[in-house]
Amino acid sequence: MKNYLLLLVLLFGITVFAQDSNTTFKRNEIKGNALFLVLGSFEVTYERIINEESGFGVSLHVPISNEFDLNYSITPYYRYYFGKKPAAGFFMEGFGMLNSVNDYVYVYDPNDNSGYKDITDFAFGIGIGGKWVTKKGILLEINSGVGRNLFSSYNDTRDFEFVGRGGITVGYRF
């Protein structure tokens, strides 16, 4: 009788443990940067949640108005979350950014090839932010970051040596 009781307790314990370890949550997010939209630019982001503490994603940023020197930027990132909810709360991120700008470049040579040029570069950077998610999957995110362009020969004299990242983003987790 004691053996049956012990077996029943073990089976019940394994079942309870299995239910705790199979906790599921929604792992996909689609977001739009509301701040950039107000300023005349469009940024959309997809993020895949890896586990309760981390996720990776990619952002596409394209200006709508002609007020920006930016042609486009594509930004993959990895985030580590410190909140109590899955992939929410305070986070830190590392990102890479492929960016292209149209800027006036003065070239020191006899042929004077100065003029407006498209400059494409890649930057690495870090950022911080916070994310809040409702039970229905609506999310709000505020983030900021800075990176440094690596390859362009024009970076030492131009304004595009550093790149910024940030915004006020709204979206949906599914």
Explain what you see.
It is a single chain. This protein has 174 residues and is mainly beta. The chain has one domain (29-173): Porin, CATH 2.40.160.20. It is 15% helix and 57% strand. It has helices spanning 2-21, 34-39; strands at residues 28-33, 41-51, 54-63, 70-81, 89-105, 115-133, 138-149, 162-173. The protein is elongated. The chain starts with a helix and ends with a strand.
Give a quick set of tags describing it.
174 residues; mainly beta; Porin; eight-stranded antiparallel barrel; 2 helices; 8 strands; 15% helix; elongated
How is the CATH topology named?
Porin
Mean residue pLDDT: 85
The largest sheet is:
8 strands, antiparallel, barrel
Mind telling me the C-alpha Rg?
Answer: 23 Å
Number of domains: 1
Main structural class = mainly beta
Amount of beta strand = over 45%
Give the helix proportion (percent range).
Answer: 10-25%
Individual helix count: 2
Assign the CATH architecture: Beta Barrel
Order of neighbouring strands in the sheet with most strands: 1-2-3-4-5-6-7-8
Low-confidence stretches: 14-21
Shape: elongated
Q: Separation of termini?
A: 49 Å
Tell how many strands the DSSP assignment holds: 8
Q: Regarding CATH, which class?
A: Mainly Beta
Order of helices and strands: HEHEEEEEEE
